[in-house]
Amino acid sequence: MVLHKFGEKLYSGLVATMTFHLKEICSSIEAAQGGLFLEELNRKWADHNKALQMIRDILMYMDRTFIPSAHKTPVHELGLNLWRDVVIHSSKIQTRLLDTLLELIQGERSGEVINRGLMRNITKMLMDLGSSVYQDDFEKQFLESSADFYRLESQEFIESCDCGEYLKKAERRLNEEIERVSHYLDAKSEAKITNVVEKELIESHMQRLVHMENSGLVNMIVGDKYEDLGRMYSLFRRVASGLVLIRDVMTSYIRETGKQLVTDLERLKDPVDFVQRLLDIKDKYDKIIGSAFSNDKTFQNALNSSFEYFINLNSRSPEYISLFVDDKLRKGLKGVSEEDVEIILDKVMMLFRYLQEKDVFEKYYKQHLAKRLLSGKTVSDDAERSLIVKLKTECGYQFTSKLEGMFTDMKTSEDTMQGFYANVGADLGDGPTLSVQVLTTGSWPTQPINTCNLPTEILSICEKFRNYYLGTHTGRRLTWQTNMGTADLKATFGKGQKHELNVSTYQMCVLMLFNNTDRLTYREIEQAAEIPASDLKRCLQSLACVKGKNVLRKEPMSKDIADSDAFFFNDKFTSKFFKVKIGTVVAQRESEPENQETRQRVEEDRKPQIEAAIVRIMKARRVLDHNNIVTEVTKQLQSRFLPNPVVIKKRIESLIEREFLERDKGDRKLYRYLA
Amino acid sequence: MRRASAKKTGQPNPIPFSHTDLFRSASSKASSKEMERIDNLFYSYCNRSSGMIDPEGIETLCSDMEVHHTDVRILMLAWKMKAEKQGYFTLEEWRRGLKALRADTVSKLKKALPELEKEVRRPTNFLDLYSYSFRYCLTEEKQKSIDIESICQLLDLVLGSQFRAQVDYLIEYLKIQSDYKVINMDQWLGFYRFCNEISFPDFSGYDPELAWPLILDNFVEWMRAKQT
After folding, report:
1. Which of A227, A244, A223, A231 is nearest to A201 (CA)?
2. What is the pTM of this model?
3. Which residues form the Cullin family profile domain (chain A) (predicted)?
């Protein structure tokens, strides 16, 4: 027919015929009852498709020639459009179809089993008819009614469940929908329906869930509920600002607990325990972030900044961390494997990094290290050195050069002693043996030089050593550090019991006085020994007032030392140990006044460092305004401490007075470098 | 006498006379007469042994002028003379000052004071006087700072009339604070800038994060605490 120019007639005939036919099909579908509606529709659709195929084949010539030139819709497409217009959009079918589909889905959500294959065919049909048909005639309503459904359900859940249960339910629903889509909906619907679920089940109730009493985020953290936390993380991740919420709540909780810990006066009495608690907290959260929050970097950062925040709230944190290390290196690491030692030291380094006042740590570390080295009380030389290497890597050579100097001095002293005894040993005879550590002044913590009269019994060997040393090292000056030494004394008591007393140098000086007399007053001791009063009193207390170590007896028996007290050699002293340790050279938490003193020294040390930074900066920049100087100085010094802006200003003024800087004559807000 | 003074200035005796020459020699005659009177005035107050006018001499001069020796106008006079040492005037300084003021008698000097005051009040001159007054008070050679007590007196003297309220509070603060026992030139200059630039008593516009001397930061903090 086409060939004979009857294309138009053919085409319109086709349209008419098909339309008529479809109307009949329509009525038959409409007539279908209840559940059979969909099946009927499905069957007729299948038939129609088959028919369309055949028609297309038959009218292929028209399809290829007449239709394009006459700008008509191709046959197949025409067939689909007609199906759409006549059947799907028929008034009786359109709404019924939609309602049926939604009803079935709703049923499935309530636990019913539905014919998924049928569903798939229907939705596929809609897609074939055009994605706009799928959307307009199904998807839009589907999404809306799902939203309504989940809104209600979520409200129900939230009233009746705790956080963990709710999240489980939400997860289940979410997975359901995803599965639903894969089975009988168009793939593009997945993102849309999951959005709906996320919004209704998660987003709307985020705040309430996180803050839920006795089951919310904080509760999960406290209880290490990794599974619940992981679920929360993966669900909230789907929602904008979901993770931010979790992170913020977690952060403020960490900061709160951290702050409580560092301000808890009871806890602070035991520095080692305090630091261990810090490490435990860090471990706890590392584990949570690792197992539940998939090592999320932003969470790691939040944890780090929280630690940095509260560790620095307590100005004694640097001291305590050093005491912790001291405890470990002194005894805590005994018997621990090398790898485990490394792990503990790395953890200490991690805390060190959080410190703002690293220079304070350095000061205490030096003091404690000195005590450890001089008393020979370090568990492992390797561990000590390993930590120094770590500090060097973190802070640079300057930080650790002095510490390394201390180790060198110890070693050198060993060699010196060997040389001494080799050289002079023969002349010594039966006298006391001496062991000297020669300390290079700059490397060791500074000590004020105190007076102290050494007992005559050891004066001669001390002199011999001094002469020996100065003989081999000209141009040096040696000073006995009488507040740092120890002595082992052999003592015989009333009933002939012998003990070996391990005492400090001061204690030795005092005790030796009792070789010549049994009774001495405080004043007499003070005069003879010439030890400063506060040290002497402490020394006498440790010799006379401590149970089990009272080699001296005091009258009166009070705990404090008064100038009028008298001391007696305690004939009746007993101890079950042969060796009695009375000296105290162990590093301890500083008393308040000592702490103040150290802090003052630290402040003094900082002044030249700040000045040096200012001069460096001004030399490079020539002219700079105040704010920028403060910023630059802070940046330069941040690896050691956080400079106080007021102190910076004071230093600038001092530099102006000493004519390193001047105020710019034109703009008095600027400073100028004077060459 | 004239020949002697001509010898001093190294001027040859003028040979051909013109009118300007006449005038010039007349004015040089007058000016040397003036210088003579100035010198004589100097000698009437100076201390014979030191060759300078010393504090006693200045006191006498002041009573002759009917001005108190602690009056700020004496400071201004010293400034005009560019006198180096407080309480002393050298001949050169005396000459410089009186010549500039065109005064060769005590009464002329006294009459010149109001004019001098006006001159000083001009902003550029005042700043100069202000810094001068600090240096003038330094007595030792390497001295760079002045004690608090003296600074308070100086502040009152130099700035008191212009900035009464600020000066009073500043003096009160300086006396009770313990951070600084002396004040240096930088801080001294800061005080003037402060009075000039910062409104009082609200201190709006004062920013301690700028380059103000720390002592002023503390002063403002103290004032603000008082005001609440």
Report:
1. A231
2. 0.76
3. 316-544
